[in-house]
């Protein structure tokens, strides 16, 4: 993994302060020029908006876990620990301000096309302290599922770590985008992104079509038993945004769901993870569409088993709205051909 060549700009100090209650941990990174004890690679040039926001630094952020994080300047070498966070950061920052991204972005994010400049950034396969330190970040954005030991080692090495709390629902996307925008000095861009997201949601609501009110399930089955997405899940959000009623809303989270459960609920629509190739069915779609035990399923009889690309089915970023838009488009097309 290439590391940019070191350049010197004289001595300057980067300070990060984290506090929880009476506890206070101050971490300082010194960047010194020739003759000093340490040197570091130059940060990429700041965008115009971040350069204008420098006057608002240093600034203190209130963290989801109750602590605080103080940043002395807009970060220029940001690393994301997970694909969902990468999606959010890529909309806030140009590629040059991202020091590294998880390689899962290629399979589980909106940045998937060959030639995408964000995919040209350095990557890592596992979120581990050594891999991240090699990227020389000045801010690491992690979620609560990211390896705790790695986060602790990064903090001990003097790297600021912003740990996001919950990122599972659309409301979390809005609040996280705003928190990240404040950390990065990109508040105007953050508000613009939230406004654009809300406009897309309004457009979905304005054109509900024949799908409105249909009972739907988000179902997966890898061959060893099925699972359904109930209340409090990302799927619950994209079903609602598409105008559908989650038939499993009385079940919190993701729960086991066998064929008998499917037949008892007998939803109008079954949404399953599909292949990224529109000409291929995913395993769940093949199973639900062909297993004799499910021949009487209403959604199967009417041809309303809808396959979403796998990355959209599992997204926890702004692409919850993209999933709803794609679901609405595909379901409308299938409804137009469905028997009564």
Question: Termini distance?
Answer: 57 Å
**Largest sheet composition:** 6 strands, mixed
Shape: elongated
Q: Mean pLDDT, as a whole number? A: 85
Structural class: alpha/beta
Structural Rg:
23 Å
Strand content: 15-25%
Q: Let me know the number of strands.
A: 15
Uncertain regions spanning at least 5 consecutive residues:
1-53
User: Portion of residues in helices?
Assistant: 25-40%
What is the number of helical segments per DSSP (H or I, 4+ residues)?
A: 13
Q: Helices and strands, in N-to-C order?
A: EEHEEEHEHEHEHEHHEEHEEHEHHEHH
Task: Draw up the topology in text.
Elements: E1 12-20, E2 23-31, H1 48-53, E3 59-62, E4 68-71, E5 78-80, H2 83-92, E6 98-102, H3 105-108, E7 123-124, H4 129-133, E8 139-143, H5 148-156, E9 161-164, H6 170-184, H7 187-206, E10 215-221, E11 226-229, H8 234-241, E12 245-246, E13 254-256, H9 259-265, E14 269-274, H10 283-290, H11 298-301, E15 305-309, H12 310-313, H13 319-337
Parallel strand pairs: 5-6, 5-8, 6-7, 8-9, 10-12, 10-14, 14-15
Antiparallel strand pairs: 1-2, 1-4, 3-4, 10-11, 11-13
Helix pairs in contact: 6-7, 7-13, 8-13
């Amino acid at each position: 993994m290439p590391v940019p060549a070191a350049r010197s700009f004289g001595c300057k100090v980067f300070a990060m302060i984290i506090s929880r209650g009476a506890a206070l941990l101050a971490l300082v990174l010194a960047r010194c020029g020739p003759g000093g004890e340490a040197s570091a690679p130059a940060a990429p040039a700041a965008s115009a908006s971040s350069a204008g926001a420098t006057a608002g630094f240093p600034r203190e952020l209130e963290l989801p876990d109750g602590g605080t994080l103080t940043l002395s300047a807009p970060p220029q070498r940001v690393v994301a620990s997970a694909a969902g966070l990468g999606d959010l950061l890529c909309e806030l920052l140009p590629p040059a301000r991202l020091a590294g991204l998880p390689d899962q972005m290629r399979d589980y994010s909106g940045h998937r096309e060959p030639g995408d400049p964000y995919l040209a950034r350095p990557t890592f396969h596992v979120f581990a302290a050594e891999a991240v330190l090699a990227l020389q970040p000045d801010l690491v954005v992690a979620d609560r599922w990211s390896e705790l030991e790695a986060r602790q080692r990064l903090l001990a090495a003097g790297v600021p770590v912003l740990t996001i709390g919950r990122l599972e629902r659309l409301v979390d996307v809005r609040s996280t985008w705003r928190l990240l925008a404040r950390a990065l000095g990109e508040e105007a861009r953050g508000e613009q992104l939230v406004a654009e997201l809300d406009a897309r949601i309004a457009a979905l609501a304005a054109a509900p079509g024949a799908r409105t009110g249909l009972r739907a399930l988000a179902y997966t089955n890898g061959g060893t038993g099925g699972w359904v997405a109930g209340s409090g899940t990302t799927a619950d959000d994209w079903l609602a945004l598409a105008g559908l009623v989650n038939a499993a809303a009385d079940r919190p989270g993701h729960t086991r769901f066998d064929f008998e459960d499917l037949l008892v609920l007998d939803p109008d629509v079954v949404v399953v993870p599909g292949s990224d190739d529109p000409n291929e069915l995913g395993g769940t779609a093949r199973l639900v569409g062909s297993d004799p035990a499910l021949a009487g399923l209403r959604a199967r009889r009417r041809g309303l088993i809808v396959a979403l690309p796998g990355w959209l089915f599992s997204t926890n970023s702004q692409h919850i709205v993209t999933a709803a838009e794609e679901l609405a488009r595909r379901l409308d097309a299938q409804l137009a051909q469905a028997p009564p």
